[in-house]
Each structure stands twice: as structure tokens, then as C-alpha cells.
């Protein structure tokens, strides 16, 4: 049993020597310096970054609210756009009709449109209006 206690003492002495060899003072100074730097960084974030980030996010929220209102199904500009698109479709139909007519009668560019004699129905309605 004596041998076991001596071996245990040797091992404990070895551990104590290794522990004594650790540069705990240097580690503590570096840790203190790092914590001081971290504290300064957190103060900078709280003082300078967070207020700007908060203001930016508030402005962004306002912008997104405006976008939501402007893109809503009942937004006032939608009626104008739909009316404009309807007029554009009608214009395109007229241009297509003109292009088809000129394709069939290219001479109309030079001579103009031919005046057609009114049909029987048109002459009746014109003579009734004249009375």
C-alpha cells in the first residue's frame, strides 16, 4: 500500500507542477483586456448602431406599408391602368384593322379612302332624319 501512496504523491506533485507552470497571470490579463474590448464594442453597438438600425427598420416598415397600400386590389391607380389598357387594346385593334385594310388596298395610301354609296338602310335613316 505504501507504494500506491508514493505513486499517488508523485502524480499529484506532477499535476501541481504543471498547474504552477500555467501562465495564469497572463491569461487573466488577456481575458481582462478582451472583456474590456468586448464591453467597448457592445457600448458602440448600443450607442451608435442600434439607433440607426432601429430608424432604418422603422423607415422600411413605412415603405412596406406604402407598397402594400399601393398594390392593394382597391388601389385608385388600378382603375386608371385598366382604363388605359382598354384604350390601348382598342387602339391596337384599330391599327390592326388599318394594317389589314392597307394590306388589301395599298393604293389607299395614295388615293385615300373610297367613298362608298350609302346602302338602302343608310339612305332610309338619312332621309328620315332630314324630315
Fold and architecture overview:
With 131 residues, the chain is mainly alpha-helical. The protein has two domains: 1-71, no CATH class; 75-107. Helices cover 85% and strands 0% of the residues. It has five helices and no strands. It has helices at residues 2-21, 24-71, 76-104, 108-111, 120-130.
How would the blueprint of this fold be written?
Elements: H1 2-21, H2 24-71, H3 76-104, H4 108-111, H5 120-130
State the gist of this model:
Helices cover 85% and strands 0% of the residues. The protein is an all-alpha fold and 131 residues long.
Low-confidence stretches: none
Distance between the termini: 143 Å
Count of folded domains: 2
> Major sheet: size, sense and barrel closure?
none
What structural category characterises the helix and strand content? mainly alpha
Number of β-strand runs: 0
Rg over CA atoms, rounded to whole Å, is: 46 Å
Estimate what percentage of residues fall within beta strands.
under 5%
How many individual helices? Answer: 5
**Mean pLDDT score, rounded?**
86
* Gross morphology: rod-shaped
Order of secondary-structure elements: HHHHH
Helix content: over 70%
Amino acid at each position: 500500500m505504501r507504494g500506491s501512496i508514493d505513486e499517488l504523491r508523485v502524480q499529484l506533485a506532477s499535476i501541481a507542477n504543471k498547474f504552477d507552470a500555467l501562465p495564469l497571470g497572463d491569461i487573466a490579463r488577456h481575458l481582462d483586456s478582451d472583456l474590456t474590448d468586448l464591453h467597448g464594442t457592445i457600448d458602440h453597438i448600443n450607442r451608435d448602431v442600434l439607433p440607426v438600425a432601429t430608424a432604418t427598420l422603422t423607415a422600411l416598415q413605412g415603405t412596406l406599408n406604402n407598397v402594400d397600400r399601393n398594390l392593394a386590389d382597391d388601389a385608385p391607380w388600378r382603375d386608371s391602368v385598366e382604363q388605359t389598357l382598354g384604350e390601348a387594346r382598342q387602339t391596337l385593334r384599330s391599327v390592326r384593322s388599318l394594317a389589314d385594310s392597307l394590306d388589301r388596298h395599298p393604293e389607299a395610301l395614295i388615293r385615300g379612302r373610297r367613298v362608298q354609296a350609302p346602302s338602302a338602310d343608310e339612305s332610309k335613316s338619312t332621309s328620315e332624319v332630314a324630315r
